[in-house]
Amino acid sequence: MNMRKQLVFVVLSLIAFGFAITSDANTYIVGDNSGWDISTNLDTWEQGKKFVVGDVLVFQYASTDSVCEVGQESFRTCNTTNVINCFSDGNTSIPLTSPGERYFFCGNRLYCYSGMKLDVIVERNQSDIAKAPLSSVPETESGGSKNNNPSTIVPSGVKSIYSESNLVLMGLLGFWGVLISIV
User: Fold this and answer.
1) How far apart are CA 62 and CA 173, in angstroms?
2) Is the pTM of this model over 0.85?
3) What is the tens place of the pLDDT at every residue in 146-180?
4) How many angstroms separate the CA atoms of 5 and 182, rounded?
5) Nearest 5°: CA angle at 152, between 40 and 162?
6) Helix 2-22 crosses helix 163-182 at what angle (to 10 degrees)?
7) By Cβ atoms counted within 10 A, which residue in 2, 36, 58, 83 is the most buried?
8) In Å, what is the CA distance from 174 to each residue of 10, 81, 111?
9) Which of 117, 151, 93, 97 is nearest to 36 (CA)?
10) What is the dihedral of CA 130, 69, 121, 52, to 10 degrees?
C-alpha cells in the first residue's frame, strides 16, 4: 500500500512539472510604467515584443480614457462608431486567445489620431505549434504587416501569468503527496 502512495505522488509531481515547463504565456502591461496614455509612445513600447496565444494585455489608464478593440479599417481611420468592444474601467485585461492581428485604440478619436492606438500580431503558442501536424502549419505565422522578431530580448516589463499558479499547484501537489505518505 505504501508503494502505491509513493507512485501516486510521483505521478502527480510529474504532472505538475509538465505544467511548469509548458507555461510560456506572458502578461504585458501596455505602456509599462506609463500605461495606456496619450503621452506613451506605443510604437516604441511594442518593438521587440512577440505576442502569442495565451498572453494577456493589461491596459491601465485614467478614468477619462478608454480602450476599444476594433477591426483593421476602423483602426486605420480611428472610427469610434464601429467597435468590437470598449472598456472604461481603468484596468482592462484582454487575453489573446487566437492567432491573428488585433487592433486597439482610445475611444477619444483625437487621442487615437495622436497615436493612442495599438496593433498587435498574435502568433501561435510554440507549445501549440509543436503539437500540430506539419501539414497544418501555415507558411507564415502572423500574416500581418509588423515584424515581430522572436530573437529580440523581451524587456523586463513582461511577467509570466503562470508563475504564481505553478507554485501554488506544485505546493498543493507536494502537500497531497506528504498527506498520502502519512495516511
Assistant:
1) 41
2) no
3) 444 433 334 444 444 444 444 444 555 555 555 56
4) 9
5) 80
6) 180
7) 36
8) 10, 53, 51
9) 117
10) -30
